[in-house]
Amino acid sequence: MGQPDAVWAQDPAPAAEAAPLLKTTPYLQAMSQDSVIITWHTSRPAYSWVNYRPEGSTEPPLTAISSTYGLKDVGLVQKIRLSNLEPGVTYTYSINSREVTKIRPYQFTFGGNITVREKNGKPLTFTTWPEKADTFSFVMINDLHDGIQKHENLINVTDVSTAEFVCYNGDIVTDKNDGDAAIKFFLQTPLDTYAWEKPFFMLRGNHETRGAFARNLHEFFPTQNNQFYYTFTYGDVFFVNLDCGEDKPDDSSEYGGLVDFDSYRSEQVEWLKKVVQLPAYKNARYRVFFCHIPPAGGGEQNVEVDIIKPDGTRQAVTDFSRAWHGDIEVRDKFLPFLFDNKADLLLCGHLHRLVNYEFRRGKDILPVLVNSHVDGLRVDISPERIFMKVINQQGEELITREVLPREEQEANAGGAIRVGPILIQ
Ligand SMILES: [Fe+2]
What we know:
Blueprint: H1 5-8, E1 27-29, E2 36-54, E3 62-65, E4 67-68, E5 71-72, E6 75-82, E7 90-104, E8 107-116, E9 118-119, E10 122-123, E11 125-127, E12 136-141, H2 148-157, E13 165-169, H3 179-193, E14 200-203, H4 217-220, E15 230-234, E16 237-241, H5 261-275, H6 279-283, E17 286-290, E18 304-308, E19 314-317, H7 325-340, E20 345-348, E21 355-361, E22 364-370, E23 376-381, E24 386-391, E25 397-403, H8 406-411, E26 418-419
Parallel strand pairs: 12-13, 13-14, 16-17, 17-20, 20-22
Antiparallel strand pairs: 1-2, 2-3, 2-6, 2-7, 4-5, 7-8, 7-11, 9-10, 12-23, 15-16, 18-19, 18-21, 21-22, 23-24, 24-25, 25-26
The structure holds fe (ii) ion (FE2).
């Protein structure tokens, strides 16, 4: 776990024992068809384990632990990966931590134990993702910028309770210096509403790269490949989470010479070359990409951009002279890749306004939906279409948009993309 070695390497401080050992209840990360990482926080260093078994089973529970280099992990963020699970099965689980107060050669001192089996009076459960799913829903929320009430509102109006997962598309945990602030301003809301039984994915925006906590962010939000860029599949939809990095050039004075995002974005292009060779990518009905910063248009590849208005009319965007460095990097490095490999949809945030774009490069078309910082996006997937609704905090639909399967789009001369009526502006 990488931290906090200084704590248990020294004699324990008696005053620190006042806080309960359990700092947060559990939240699910990196869910897939056969694995999940159950994550929680303790107020003092501990090692942990999870007991689990299929719901209704009378067999003894299985136990999962976490160790690195042969040593059980001891730290403040408890991350227990459960592997070799069955798809589409509900499991009951308990989380367990034992405080470690001192480690010396042949001498160990332990504090208390905690076990949590319930949340809101019900057994803790999660359900692995099914092997097949023709229809399902997910929610995207972005640019919360520490808005706790906004977060609660958007969870309600997008009906997260009937969605399979939530994607937080950047600028959620804004400019944090410590993890406690990240818990207070972001994590506590999922912890209180759904995160023990339903997973969320945290994608970085440009603000998640700022402040001291940026260097510990991944500790809180583990992923299958230990990167902030990764893929997952649900049903026959292939999802790609791109990590846009900062919005200004690496040598901007704001970053103090401490960032390296140009090469990081290039690294993701190399990774993408392997991703598109995967059978799951090739065979997917839909390929959905997330990237916090939307691309600029124009450039060497002469990418054309239309804004599709709520009444279905279009407005061409022709002036890209004020595009920021991040927008241009996303355009020049990621966008050609999305065109070349027939991505079906790119979902973004960052602009703090709702913009319904269509990007074109010659005959290639890419729908790009930019959600605002005050609304939520509900996406309902079916074999017939990707159906998107942008919903405000009062529960009113702002726009709807649908994307049809590629074969159908191609049959319709490359773009049966329709925009629903606007109900409120
Ligand atoms: Fe942003």
